[in-house]
Amino acid sequence: MNKNGNQFETLLHDLDRVKRRQKICKKSINENINNVINVLQNSLNQINNTYMEEEDNSKLKSKLQDLSTEVLKIKPLDQVTKSHKDYFAYLSKLGKDIDKSFNKDIDKIFKGTNLEGEQINNVIQEHFLREGKFEIQNSLKKELNIQSNPKVEENFHMIHLILEEIKKENIEPALQWALTNEKTLEEIESNLIFNIYQQKFLQEVASKGKEDAIKFARINFPKFFPKYAPEIQKLMGSLLYDRNPNNSRYSYLYDTNQWEKISLNIIQDACKIHHTTPQSALDQILGAGTLALPKFLKYYSLSSHNAQDWKNCEELPVATDLGKDYQFHSIFVCPVTKEISTFDNPPMLLNCGHVISEHALKKILSGNKTRFKCPYCPAEISVTSSKRIYLN
User: Fold this and answer.
1) I want to staple 330 with a disulfide (CB 3.0 to 4.6 A). Which of 25, 101, 221, 391 is the partner?
2) CB-CB contact of 131 with 222 (8 Å)
3) pLDDT for 304
4) pLDDT at residue 1 in the model
5) pLDDT digits (tens, 9 = 90+) for 68-80
């Protein structure tokens, strides 16, 4: 685990200790309160059970003195104070560790960075469109006097109308939209139309019965053969358990998650059709920034005298692996130079099957060589046989 991970583990450990100490403190306070109540109750019972003449208060005074002694012996205030002191010691340590682990001044890392206001505004308003916050998006447009793509707006309005109907288990609007865009969906190799018909078939089984479901299948499923033959066979097989499908091997077909899958399917395909990403750009930016920020903070603290230089570089000065969720295209790292390929330094395929960068190839070909030995196998390579690789 890296240092950042260790820091969070330490904070979580400290937080658990604070929680445990809080419980111990609460238990100690309750015990002390109960002890004082018991002493008072016992003294009160003894006083009530002992006859004392009104003119003779000596016994009462003696009993009250004994009560005072008993309470002082318990020392409830000292016990409560000690419990609070221990608890706040752990709480104070947690606060100090949080201050050490989180650098509050992150602006210094990005001072001098020029941000395109128009692009930021467009990203924010598109985020509101994706979330279905159309009133907020319209207000933002008016206040900032910015424009948006009418087709994109219409697309997201339509998507959200369809999704709202799917929440009500009404799949008809989704089917109409899919059939309207059938040709485009075929071009992007979408399974949406079949998935919608599959869901309609299951609705027929649940609402009208086996016979109507079979009629529906005969009318609508032939066009999906042979591509979806296995899926259709499973749907037909599920009819054997139509009275109790949830206890059959086909129970997954009737899972409510199927509606969520169709919703996700619609969002992804609609975004593909209109050449937009299914995930909000704002979410992606904030997520990537949150993952990368600790490394930038570390870099800045170690080299503050030249930490601003990275903003003018084509590559970041530190490795920032954000995980597979933030990989949007293929990359190639040369095994010889350890450099990431670029347009000016593309990967080159050797005729032996190994791949190195063009810079590495030029270094190996120092002088006027036309043939060289592969750095990873005994094969002798001809320069003319080396081919450039294009990554998507």
Assistant:
1) 391
2) no
3) 58
4) 42
5) 787 777 787 888 8
Asked if the structure places residue 82 within a domain, the reply is yes
**Nearest to 194, CA basis, from 170, 176, 208, 175:** 175
Residues 6 or more apart in contact with residue 80 via CB below 8 angstroms:
28, 29, 32
**The three-state (H, E, C) secondary structure of 35-66, written as one string:** HHHHHHHHHHHHHHHCCCCCCCCHHHHHHHHH
User: In the chain, which ranges are E strands?
Assistant: 347-349, 355-357, 371-373, 380-382, 387-388
CA distance 377 to 379: 6
Closest CA to 357 of 392, 388, 382: 388
Residue 8, domain member (yes or no): yes
- Regarding whether 208 and 156 lie in a shared domain, the answer is yes
pLDDT at 298: 76
Sign of the dihedral defined by the CA atoms of residues 86, 88, 89, 90, in that order? positive
Q: Quick check: is 35 in a domain?
A: yes
Identity at 247, one-letter amino acid code: N
Q: 233: how many CB neighbours lie within 10 A of its CB?
A: 10
CA 319 to CA 183: how far, in whole Å? 43
Q: Structural domain tally of the chain?
A: 3
Tell me if 291 is assigned to some domain.
no
Distance CA 51, CA 46 (A): 10
pLDDT: is 192 or 65 the higher one? 192
The answer on 129 and 94 residing in a single domain is no
Predicted TM-score (pTM) of this structure: 0.57
Q: What is the pLDDT of residues 160-200, one digit of tens each?
A: 999 999 999 999 999 999 999 999 999 988 999 999 999 99
